Structure formats: C-alpha cells, structure tokens
Amino acid sequence: xxxxxxxxxxxxxxxxxxxxxxxxxxxxxxxxxxxxxxxxxxxxxxxxxxxxxxxxxxxxxxxxxxxxxxxxxxxxxxxxxxxxxxxxxxxxxxxxxxxxxxxxxxxxxxxxxxxxxxxxxxxxxxxxxxxxxxxxxxxxxxxxxxxxxxxxxxxxxxxxxxxxxxxxxxxxxxxxxxxxxxxxxxxxxxxxxxxxxxxxxxxxxxxxxxxxxxxxxxxxxxxxxxxxxxxxxxxxxxxxxxxxxxxxxxxxxxxxxxxxxxxxxxxxxxxxxxxxxxxxxxxxxxxxxxxxxxxxxxxxxxxxxxxxxxxxxxxxxxxxxxxxxxxxxxxxxxxxxxxxxxxxxxxxxxxxxxxxxxxxxxxxxxxxxxxxxxxxxxxxxxxxxxxxxxxxxxxxxx
Length: 398
Ligand SMILES: [Zn+2]
Prior knowledge:
The chain is α/β, with parallel strands linked by helices and about 400 residues long. The chain has helices at about 1-5, 55-65, 70-75, 80-85, 90-95, 105-110, 140-150, 165-185, 205-215, 235-245, 260-270, 280-285, 325-335, 340-365, 365-380, 390-395; strands spanning about 10-15, 30-35, 35-40, 40-45, 70, 100, 115-120, 125, 135, 150-155, 195-200, 220-225, 255, 275-280, 290, 295-300. The longest helix has 26 residues, at about 340-365. The model is unreliable at about 1-5 and about 385-398 (pLDDT under 50). Zinc ion binds near residues 312, 315, 319, 320 and 349.
C-alpha cells in the first residue's frame, strides 16, 4: 500500500500509531499534499465562498491554519468553477498557498437547496442563490473540483440525516457506493487527491458494509459522512467505533465531516479520527461568543463592557494580543466589522491550539492520562446543539 500511496498526490504517514494497550485509538500523522504538509489530527477552517468569513489569508496563517475547506456547491453556483479556472485556480483566486480541500457538494444539495430531486444519475436542485435549476452528477462534481484545483477533492455522495429511517439510509448508501465508483473513474487530475465518503447512517450493519466498500476503492483518504447531525453522542461514538474498527489496518487518513466543538473533536480523535472541518468556531464568533478554556463567553453580556482583560489570558491571537473584552464587546454592540474579524481569529486560534495540544499529548504518548485535563479545557463548547446539520441548514449556508 505504501508504494501506491507515494505515487499518489497525497501520502499519509502515521508518526505515532494507536496505543498498543488499546487505551486510545488516537494517532499522530503527516499528510503530505501538493501545497504543503498537514499535521494530524487537524481541524480545517471552512472557507465557504473561497473565504473564511471575516479573515484575510494572513489572518488564517496567523491562527495556524495549515489546510482549509472550500465548498464546491457554493463556488459552482457563484462565481462558477470555470471562471475560477480561467483566473488560475482556487489557490490563486483566493490568494491562499497552503492546502485546500473541496467537499463534494452532496451535503449542501441536501441541506441548502430550496428544492431537490435525487435520481440514479445525479441530483437536480434549485439554487439557493438565484432560484435557478441546477444539476450535479458524480462526473460533474469531479469536473468542478478539478477545475477548482484543490489539493483534495471529495467523491459526490448522497448524505441523509442520521435519524432517517432505515430504507432511506440504505437507498442513499447504496447510491453513494455507485457514485463513488463513478467518481473514481471520472477523476483525472494527477496532482489532486481524491477522498471517498462512507455513509450508512446509524445502522451499524449498513455503516460497516459502507466502510468496507468505500475502503475497497483506490481513494487517498476516507471520509466519515452522515454524522455531526441529529445523532446522540452515544450513537456517534458507536458509529465511529464501527468504522474505525474496520479500518484498523488501513493506511489512509480518516476525516469526520462537520464536527467542530472542541469536546467533540477530542472524543473523535481518541477514537482514531485524523481530520475535521466545521463552520462552528467561526459562526459562533460572529454571534459574539468566544471560546476560552472551560467554556465560552458571550461578549454581548453587559458585564464585559467594563472588562479590561483580554478574551483569554495568554492567547496570542489578533484579538487578545491588543484588545480588551470591553473594546470587542463595544464593537459588537456598534455592529463594527472589526468585531467579526477579531472574534473569528480568536475562536479559530483556540480551536487550532487545542488540536496542537492534542497532538502534543499523542506525541508524548500521554493522551489517555491527559484526557481529563483536555476535556476540562474544551468545556461544553457547542454542546447545546449548534453543531448540528439542522443548525447549518437553518443558519449560514456553509
Ligand atoms: Zn485570542
């Protein structure tokens, strides 16, 4: 497998394997992509419209982002992949030189489009931007991602909500498999990795079958789809266990799509997941909620208007290195644009620093001993339901 992986545009090296005594499945890895190296476990900030909302690319580097995600669905609808290709590539268009992953668009078709119809060949839907009728197929989703030119493309899948009834999950999972084969056939770009998506909902037999099927295809990485939705923490744990248990000897990176609260990230890393993305840290920042060790502060609360302290003592981010809680609380009340930039920079710094702390614990082979302290630091961020697929669909289109 190693020689095949090295011939591909993505190579993944497990630097510290899971603990031999079974105390954790967490692992430390290095994912090498055309635009750079990604240390795993890692979190990818989401740049929906070829921008992480409110941040300049220099800000993104400052928060420590080594890879970002951009949304195929959004860029297909506006400004159009062909325009981006004419202008050089997504990297050049948004002036970001580090790795980019584009998602498949399948999730946005299901969660955002005003109307949709899935058939065997693809998905027809009404654009949430201008109401026009649009269509994506496995082949066109791959062609769009090849035009965008991200380091990593993702196979077009048919996601469903975790709580969907079994017949719906089964139908979508089997279609995802047929579409995965078509995506593998359609993908041509040799300087772009291709990840496949495991579905199967919360039906553990379907989830296991999907894991084995998707892993049998020559993907460079394996996404765990259909979670970070309306499942319970216990259901999520059980489902990740099913997938990771079957992938124990598989050398490819594992990416759980849509998970974003520090507490959830920690648990999934402990179960053996390597990559994550979510709009959560940046979206809650724009509602004046900033993450600190142990929980979150809502800067709209009156108590912060006279608070001269930084958001988080010792944080070196754009916000904390210069500004007080009082100032940023004022900016939010005055609806000043700088508020969004500062709060977003802080929450992404907190998240990426948290991932770095997890990697350090894995490197020193002390993650099981440090889980309690890391849980305390993570607090309950996002545990009140705003990480859900329903929240995404109702909130920001991302
Ligand atoms: Zn900060």
